[in-house]
Design brief:
The protein has an 8-stranded mixed beta sheet. It contains 9 helices and 8 strands. With 248 residues, the protein is an alpha/beta fold. It is found in: Cytoplasm. It holds the Pfam family Radical_SAM.
Length: 248
């Protein structure tokens, strides 16, 4: 008796090609739909709900990625899965990562770590680089800023360190929210104790996604928050470097 295997299907928002911001080289960046957090500075509110994404099978996604295989390899790049939150769809994410490795492509997972417990060992084995977004090191600020808890992200970071996984930290710098000196100092101290962290990218807050909130009819919570000035960015970057971390 034959058995029919159902194709692994996910919900995706879109895909794009990028250089320099989503991992090394030029990347095929796959944006998955759905996210458990509601970060006040989120630039992609149109990725919040899985129901808004387009259904796609792993085969369909891989057919698109395969078109760029030679280019991505020549450009020293690969494939990055992001969102939304890619770990909200762990089976789909794991399947895409596995298939990318079968094509010989470098893989990266961009995640908040909030759902890190959903990442199986097999999924991580097929992930060459984790881009870990740590929103704040202050528990109360993290809750107010994202609606979630900090602990799962720190647990995931520790797990990545134990497994020897390469990690780039992404830290969005928002004046009045993530610029507290003590909180930055605490995060820098935590990260300096993890041998897996290769670099920390300071990402200045911006409002490039404000028009998406307008289109959705949703208020942008930080519309009156200014972008950080150069002095603030330099101070925070210096704090991370003061702990021996490579910070950009």
């Amino acid at each position: 008796m034959s058995t029919t295997v159902e194709p692994v299907t996910g919900r995706i928002h879109s895909w794009d090609l990028s250089t320099g911001v989503d991992g090394p080289g030029t990347r095929f960046v796959l944006f998955l739909s759905g996210c458990p957090l509601r970060c006040l500075y989120c630039a992609n509110p149109d990725t919040w709900h899985m129901r808004d994404g387009k259904p796609a099978t792993v085969d369909e996604v891989m057919a698109e990625i395969a078109k760029y295989r030679a280019f991505l390899t020549t450009a020293g790049g690969g494939v990055t899965l992001t969102g939304g939150e890619a770990l909200l769809q762990p089976a789909f994410t794991a399947s895409v990562l596995r298939r990318c490795k079968e094509l010989g492509l470098h893989t990266a997972l961009d995640t908040s770590g909030f759902l890190g417990a959903r990442a199986s060992d097999a999924l991580l084995a097929d992930t060459d680089l984790v881009l870990l977004d740590i929103k704040s090191f202050d528990v109360r600020t993290y809750r107010r800023l994202t609606g979630g808890d900090l602990a799962p992200t720190l647990d995931f970071a520790t797990r990545l360190d134990r497994s020897g996984k390469r990690v780039w930290i992404r830290y969005v710098l928002v004046p009045g929210w993530t610029d507290d000196e003590d909180a930055v100092e605490g995060l820098a101290g935590f990260l300096s104790g993890l041998g897996c962290v290769e670099r920390v990218d300071i990402l200045p807050f911006h409002k490039l996604g404000a028009h998406k909130y307008e289109a959705l009819g949703v208020p942008f919570p930080l519309r009156d928050t200014p972008a950080p000035d150069t002095a603030l960015v330099d101070r925070v970057r210096g704090q991370f470097r003061g702990h021996g971390l490579v910070a950009h």
